[in-house]
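Batch job 17 of 40 flagged for manual review because the log was empty.
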Amino acid sequence: MGDYAKKYKFYAQNYVRGVRKWIIDSFADCLELTKC
């Protein structure tokens, strides 16, 4: 159970980090497009 919880936490953190990076990148692209 402990290993499973650790693995799940690891995947969850990576997923959140990936989503956050994607949102920030998309937001940056949007700013670049609307800046002109």
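Reviewer: the log was empty due to a logging misconfiguration, but the result itself is present. The chain has one domain: 1-36. Unflagging and moving on to job 18.
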